[in-house]
Amino acid sequence: MRPRSISSSSSSGTDDSGPLVPKGGKGGLLAASQPQPFSNSGGSGPTIPQLAQQFMKLQQSNTNYYQNTISVQKGEITQGRIDLNDANQRYSTEQRTSALYYSKFTSQQSQLTQAQNDLTAEKSKASYWYQQYGVLYNRAQTLEATNEGLTARIAILEKANIDLKNERESRPTPSLDQGLRAELALAQSEVAALMAMKNELEQKVKKAEKDAWEWWNRSQELEQASEELQNERAEKVALRRDVASLRQKRERDKERLQKLKERAERSETLARERRETIERLTSRRV
After folding, report:
1. In this predicted structure, what is the pLDDT of residue 286?
2. Quick one: which of 65, 122, 169, 251 has the fewest CB in 10 Å?
3. d(Cα 229, Cα 100) in Å, to the nearest integer?
4. Best mean pLDDT range from 55-59, 102-106, 108-112, 159-163
5. For bias kind Low complexity, which ranges apply (predicted)?
6. Beta bridge partners of 5
7. What's the CA gap between 118 and 124, in Å, rounded?
8. Number of folded domains that form the chain
9. Domain residues for 201?
10. Which CATH number does the domain housing residue 120 bear?
11. 126 lies in a domain?
């Protein structure tokens, strides 16, 4: 807002649109403060009462202008402080929320680590049971082949026993028959032992297969839980980015308030200096 100039003629009322300065070239107020020619009989220069009236109007106008300017700038400072307080409150709330989410994130991260360790252990157990299942299955296959061989051998021995029995009836040979019977009984006992071992191994294989499936299902559940925890971890990372953005905004608000304060201080200093200059010139003129 530019200061307006006044002429030597008097005018009524005041205007606070800007500080008043008298016309008169480069001298400004200092030039106006120099003695002016006047005459009681109607000279060309203004009279002393006219100059006094002009300076009174000038002082009132400048006072009103700077008071209005200072009032506006104080309002800006007040609004800046309100904005800063609001930003501080938002920042405090968001900081508490961030701390809460960070605590929850830390807890879930610990749970995720534990779940991953459990998953690794379960996978190791599942791999062990799969290996045991393969070993037991191969052993069962071997025992089954052995059992088939013993069954065939038993059939041969039974046939030989029948042949020997027939031959004994025609020509008794107690010693030979007794030896074959002993061999047959031994073979039958071996077959019974092998069958019992086979049944036991089949039960172990079934149990191992059942355990392996249980461990597999549990490992799948743990993998799903691990994925969910990783998704939550990504959400917490995004939240931390938002908190960092809010911190940057708060710093910008603080810088803006500081600039407003500096601007207000400069305006107050300038207004005080101009007011002192006007008062000094007025007092000198009076």
Report:
1. 55
2. 169
3. 17
4. 55-59
5. 1-23
6. 21
7. 10
8. 1
9. 49-281
10. 1.10.287
11. yes
